Amino acid sequence: MTTREKILASIQANQPSLMPLPEQFTFTSLFPDLTKQFSDSLAFVGGMAVVVPDYKAIEAHLKEHYPALTNVATTCPELAHMADVILDVADPHELSGLNLTIIEGPLAVAENAAIWVDERQLPHRVVPMITQYLVIIIRQSTIVANMHDAYKKIQVDTTGFGTFISGPSKTADIEQSLVIGAHGARSLIVYILP
Amino acid sequence: MYMKVGLFIPCYIDQFYPKVAIATLKLLEKVGCDVAYPLQQTCCGQPMANSGYEHLTGGCNDNFVSNFAGYDYIVSPSGSCTLHIKHHLHGTNETAATEIRSRIYELTEFLTDVLKISTLEATFPYRVGLHQSCHGQRGLHLAQMSELVAPPYSKPVQLLNLVKDLELIQLDRRDECCGFGGTFCVTEEAVSAKMGKDRVADHLRHGVHYITGVDVSCLMHMEGILKRANSNVQVKHIAEILTATV
Amino acid sequence: MNQLNLDHAHAAIEFNKNEPRVDWHDETLWFVRTKRDRAVAQLPEWEQLREAASQIKNHVLSNMHDLLAQFEENAKRNGITVHWATDGAEHNAIIHDLIQKAGATRMVKSKSMLTEECHLNDYLTRHGIEVIDSDLGERIVQMRKEPPSHIVLPAIHLTKADVGETFHEHLGTEKGATDPQYLTEAARQHLRETFLTRKVALTGVNFAIAETGGFVVCTNEGNADMGAHLADVHIAAMGFEKIIPRAEHLGVFLRLLARSATGQPITTFSSHFHRPRPGQEMHIVIVDNGRSRQLGRPDFRNSLKCIRCAACMNTCPVYRRSGGHSYHSAVAGPIGSILAPNLDMKLNADLPFASTLCGSCSNVCPVKIDIHDQLYKWRQVLMQEGYGPTSKTVSMKAMATVLESPRLYRMAGKVGRGVLRFAPVTVENRFNPWYNQREMPEPPAESFRDWYINNKKA
């Protein structure tokens, strides 16, 4: 008997008789204004949401917020001219010098400010963590109320990797004092386009 | 309405706090119950059971059943002992044990749920802190629990609100355990005493004259700590306050 | 004194020798509990969510065999190699082998309580492999050669001054520096270098999805991602109970997990791994280590529903006043106390008694494990199996003899009230610790029964 067979046989022998899955396991969240709820949630988790009319406004805001920043990369064709480094490298270790990265998020969640990104948005999986500062651009129409709604819209295995990102990386491991910027991005700005 | 009530007085109340039992008896009689105290009662068996020796409680169980079979209601001024009977009473006469399990009530739930008391002639002109004993609260659901997202209610508070001139204070931690815990109070003395000191401190911070509750065991523990600190704050079981007059 | 060599009560005595420190520990964890309360109060459906999670997990326990087989099949199809380990030793050997095959001598590891349970770090270190824990709290305790004291907040027993000293020694931060921002930045620089240079990364698993053959890892720091996405080999270790049927069930669990753990609406990163990136190897090690035995115990099997949020620790008044190390087990607190006896009854017989059975743990549990009822039931099992001290059994038998006989009870009462010896609380200890910090009540002249006979019966 292999280890696998041994474990599975032991489980088979010990598991109780079949219990059904619950009929209700999704719930509706009623937010009067999804964009406002998303923005409030993001502020709560240490990020900043900015509602903008177009890419020009994003560029203007970024230039003001991160003046004279180098090692900037983006996957966004509309902002390609702002980038001075590329994400299309062979080895993700080459991205260790990234300062600011601007990516797009196809789906956002109002209740917790989580933004789904997968390999269709990420040239390398490590991009949103290895960059010092992260910017995600989302569209108002793609904000859903809660996680149940989110999982109805995404297929988690369309690509090999996908992640919900909610705010900048953080830790409270030293005396429960919140510190923004643990190992991942030190800040997160989310621009919300119409 | 005629109902025969069997009064269950836990062993340590019988031995150390007879005044609580007397107040309970008087209170029940005042609100119109026909109360009898079965004379051969001893203990619910909880001290052994919570120590891991439930298998030694058969004798206590049978004695309990023979004392309390046949009453319409069994009422006790202890949430903890009531809960133990409700969950763990079995016996040689299992039918009678099952009956008893469904007919036993802690005093405040009996007054609010069965008798639906809405007035009381009691006066207690003091600042009072209510200690929510865990077994009464989380076991018997005498009050809403702070962990749950659910509407608030409290049977003891409902009754204390009927007492004239009583000022009930709000604790910083409204339902934290006092650390008595049965034999825990000696086997884990360090944590037990620390929990008790912290619970008492919450009441003292709010300037109480009295700490009350539905379980004398918790109150005995906190009283022990108050006395050691030479505090003049006293403990009183809720039955004593609900029967207090000026 | 090393708390890990003591039983819970004695370790708690040590912990309580520094009362201001106990107060600080209690307040710090109570703060986390209040954050949790605020977060859950925002969801009117909170109790229904808990119920849904509980039912999904009950289904999982009852369908474990098929779900694991389905997960394995789908994971393999995704290009993930699946390994099975009966116990900690096999788990450690598999991982060691994978590191060797990768030609590596160093590994970066994000938080995995399973590897703590299996003592992986000790094992690998003995075999010449350097392991660096990348979660900040875990890195702190690793530098201090201590185990984590909490499954979500591994260094919660340490003050910022303690961390400052440790970092001064190990990372060369300024002596006396205690600013968490400064200390975290130092760790960030140190661990960045680690992430960029390790070929093998190990992560835990929060949820494994049977339907899709992938797994989810949740962190706030981004350390699991930094390790896994930069390594040539990603090893994920999971206890088999981490399985859930479908991806849509994640909606329930991700809404519950972080709110219960830290009061956040979700962790910063909830990363879904389904296939290795091009050129990368991805391995999953599925571990039993006593879990199938626990699955066979009807009274205790639902402890396997645990999603490791630690809400039961934060709310536990005993945990807050005794510290995680007093539980001498990888998982401390109430949940640890119902898991540990399954691993070793003799070694962990004290843990189910490290509770007042107040029940707060069961109320905060996001998957509705009846933790305090199981503590009670473990007490019965342990004493019946003979893991109680003989003196305790003798005194309990004596107490039962007295309490089941009305005649003996009254006799003992008469004697006892005089000398204050009769009370359940004093029975089992000759030196009666009650008096260390408390007084006993004044003995009344007569018992209630005597009063009743004198005043009422006629």
TrEMBL record, chain A:
Protein name per UniProt:
LUD domain-containing protein
Q: Which SUPFAM superfamilies match?
A: NagB/RpiA/CoA transferase-like
Which PANTHER family does its entry note?
Answer: LACTATE UTILIZATION PROTEIN C (PTHR43682:SF1)
Q: Where is the LUD domain?
A: 104-193
| Organism superkingdom | Bacteria
Q: Which organism is it from?
A: Spirosoma arboris
Alphabetized InterPro entries for the sequence: FTHF_cligase-like_sf, LUD_dom, NagB/RpiA_transferase-like
TrEMBL record, chain C:
Question: What would be one Pfam family of this protein?
Answer: Fer4_8
Q: Which GO terms describe its molecular function?
A: 4 iron, 4 sulfur cluster binding; metal ion binding
Gene3D superfamilies in the record: Alpha-helical ferredoxin (1.10.1060.10), NagB/RpiA/CoA transferase-like (3.40.50.10420)
Q: Which GO terms describe its biological process?
A: lactate metabolic process
Repeat among the record's keywords?
A: yes
Q: Where is the 4Fe-4S ferredoxin-type domain?
A: 296-326
Which UniProt keywords are listed? 4Fe-4S, Electron transport, Iron, Iron-sulfur, Metal-binding, Repeat, Transport
Question: Its domain of life?
Answer: Bacteria
Name of the protein in its database record: DUF3390 domain-containing protein
Name the species this protein comes from: Spirosoma arboris
